[in-house]
Design goal:
It is a single chain. The chain is an alpha+beta fold. The chain has four helices and twelve strands, in the order H-E-E-E-E-E-E-E-H-E-E-E-H-E-H-E. A hairpin with a 2-residue loop joins strand 5 and strand 6. The chain is elongated, with a radius of gyration of 28 Å.
């Protein structure tokens, strides 16, 4: 009888172990399934500290790299603030998250609404990947080669933005250049930027750890030849977009 009792206890212990292992495996599988479903489920809410904002564009590190758009609102007022953003991802613009509401957290941890969307989203300064791919690459070989850019209208070029001051009319005025260099790092020339779109300024701030960007340009007036050869200022342009590709 004693032997039978021992065998019984062993069998009960083994059964408990099997039951525990099975339960643990099921719990693990359920957790993995829930996690997978959470990943697949489209996000419609983000919380975090605003790191970069220009115009209506806002970046939250917790937003998985999406660019958040607050239509009709100056998002720059939210830099450094803790916020909760609710909205919708846009399938036709995979990197864009349209904000429908933004709540800001105060010192007590309570949230107060600071933005509610009241108009349809408009993004006239947004260039999608397909549009950017269609821009021809500008190959600039020298200040004395205006044929490299004249008559092209639009184009993209790899360069580095640089702030400077120039004398004009007896006063110093700020100017932004796109410095174009050859493969050895020697300066070929400088493009005078008349205007940056909000989206391009936003992306340059968002990617502030990088020195060079691809700039998507609307090509404008060529600098006078004598000044061009003296200063290496090539032509005027508006920057429509900027990025790493």
């Amino acid at each position: 009888m004693t032997s039978l009792k021992k065998i019984g206890r062993i069998l009960l212990s083994l059964g408990a172990i099997v039951l525990l292992v099975g339960t643990t495996a099921c719990q693990k599988k359920a957790a993995e399934t829930a996690k997978a479903n959470a990943v697949q489920k489209p996000a419609n809410e983000f919380e975090g500290t605003v790191k970069v904002a220009v115009g209506k564009y806002l970046y939250l590190p917790t937003a998985q790299g999406f660019d958040i758009v607050l239509q009709g609102y100056d998002a720059g007022t939210l830099v450094g603030k803790d916020v909760r953003v609710k909205g919708e991802l846009l399938p036709e613009r995979p990197s864009i998250f349209r904000a429908d509401s933004v709540d800001m957290k105060d010192a007590s941890g309570a949230y107060t609404n600071v933005y509610t969307r009241t108009a349809d989203l408009t993004m006239n300064d947004y260039l999608d990947v397909k549009t950017r791919e269609a821009y021809p690459v500008l190959t600039i070989t020298g200040a004395n080669k205006p044929e490299d850019w004249e008559g092209k209208g639009e184009g993209k070029i790899l360069g580095q933005a640089e702030e400077a001051t120039v004398k004009a009319g007896g006063t110093e005025q700020p100017v932004t250049y796109i410095v174009v260099s050859d493969d050895k790092g020697h300066e070929i020339g400088k493009i005078i930027v008349d205007k940056f779109s909000d989206f391009s300024k936003y992306y340059m701030k968002k990617l502030r750890l990088f020195d060079k960007f691809w700039f998507y340009l609307k090509i404008k007036d060529t600098v006078d030849r004598r000044d061009r050869l003296r200063t290496k200022e090539l032509f005027h342009a508006d920057v429509l977009s900027a990025g790493l590709f």
